[in-house]
Write a structure and sequence with these properties.
This protein is an alpha/beta fold and 359 residues long. It has 13 helices and 13 strands. The chain folds into two domains: 3-13 and 252-356, Alpha-Beta Complex (Aspartate Aminotransferase, domain 1); 16-247, Type I PLP-dependent aspartate aminotransferase-like (Major domain) (Aspartate Aminotransferase, domain 2, 3-Layer(aba) Sandwich). Helix 1 crosses helix 10 and helix 12 (301-311) crosses helix 13. The chain binds pyridoxal-5'-phosphate (PLP). Residues 67-69, 93, 137, 142, 170, 172, 199, 201, 206, 211 line the site of pyridoxal-5'-phosphate.
């Protein structure tokens, strides 16, 4: 396959290799026991402390672990029984749909509009059942690239408080903003009803699996107990390296360099799509890794995928991000692609759309 639009991985040239090597050597020489020995299930104390300070919470409100997705699975193992109701945005992250479905949850899709979840649908679903939790990706959503507006965040936080609904806020892209101002997170608006999940996968490197969750002490305490029973200690070596990297203060410069690298790639993608496929609608992300492209009603994403595959372009299955439907949706990544790959990929996509158009 010549060009890969199927996966949204970080650009390997963004990995801060020299700093990672330096931090690896420091954590072994300075604090060998914390990085190489079994340790608390919560993760290395120094990384936990750095996160707690960043979120202005105490250490007991933090759990680190092997990727935020791994922590989400752990959370579901504690929270969910088969048949429990969970709300998700539609579309949403495909792996979360798979985890929830595998646990037998009754998953209710709340349509995602340009400015966040459809509040009327949320309220009417709520009138039917109060869910165990509502999983949301408010910043530069995977797969749509959309961001929930400040007004909708406030309304959702108020409803969550009123009905005592746990908001699971997945925020791995939050810090990678190219334009516009940062909006308050659910954790800032309603900390008592929010479990905030994030990781350094998109910021340092996914191979470190440096994920974390921040939430109320009682819930985090249950997750820590479950983590202890499941794997004793997370990947302390990698988490200590991530913690050391954060502690050394590399985050602001790394974010600036990610934005300088990825911002022009997003621009190249939107320019190329507008020029090649002017009749197609796509959301305009202000940050993150993806944009969502909507094919016209007569053209299915499976037909486009098939044609694209033959022409050398890999696309992900847009239907995977929906519980039902999604036949006309494509998730388009841009961060891990050079401008030349973006232009070539979009030229192939244009050809594939033409070929998939019914005669
Ligand atoms: C919304 C969302 N949540 C979680 C993850 C998983 O991240 P991690 O590498 O921290 O497990 C991803 C990765 O693509 C994602 O897009």
């Amino acid at each position: 396959m010549r060009i890969n639009f199927a996966r949204g991985v970080p650009a390997p040239e963004s990995f801060p290799v020299a700093d990672i090597l330096c931090c690896a050597s420091q954590v072994v020489s300075r604090n060998m026991l914390e990085s190489l020995q079994y340790g608390p299930a919560r993760g290395p104390a120094s990384f936990v402390r750095w996160i707690a300070e960043r979120y202005s919470v105490n250490d007991m409100m933090v759990l680190t672990g092997d990727g935020s997705l791994g922590l989400f699975e752990l959370f579901c193992s504690v929270m969910l029984k088969p048949g429990d109701t969970v709300f998700v945005e539609s579309p949403t992250y495909d792996r979360v749909i798979e985890i929830l479905t595998a646990r037998g949850a009754r998953v209710v899709a709340i349509a995602l509009q340009e400015d966040g979840p459809d509040l009327e649908q949320f309220k009417s679903a709520l009138a039917d059942t109060v869910p165990r939790f509502f999983y949301l990706i408010p910043d530069f959503q995977n797969p749509s690239g959309l961001t929930c507006s400040a007004e909708k965040r406030a309304a959702i936080a108020a409803l969550a408080r009123q009905h005592n609904i746990l908001l699971v806020e997945d925020a791995p892209y939050r810090l990678i903003r190219y334009t516009g101002a940062t909006l308050p997170s659910f954790f800032e608006l309603a900390p008592e009803v929010t479990l905030h999940m994030s990781s350094l996968s998109k910021i340092i490197a996914p191979g470190l699996r440096a994920g974390y969750v921040v939430g109320n002490e009682a819930l985090i305490g249950k997750l820590v107990k479950a983590a202890e029973n499941r794997y004793v200690t997370p990947g302390n070596f990698a988490l200590s390296i991530a913690g050391e990297w954060c502690r050394q203060g590399h985050l602001p410069a790394q974010l600036a360099s990610l934005i300088a690298l990825y911002g022009p790639r997003l621009h190249a993608m939107t320019e190329a799509l507008t020029a090649a496929l002017p009749e197609l609608h796509f959301g305009r992300p202000q940050g993150g890794f993806f944009l969502g492209l909507h094919l016209p009603p007569g053209i299915s994403n499976s037909a486009v995928r098939e044609q694209a595959q033959q022409l050398g372009l890999a696309l992900s299955d847009g239907k995977g991000f929906f519980l039902t439907g999604g036949e006309h949706f494509l998730r388009i990544p841009f961060c891990g692609l050079t401008v030349a790959e973006i232009q070539e990929g979009v030229a192939i996509l244009r050809r594939a759309v033409e070929l998939a158009r019914p005669a």
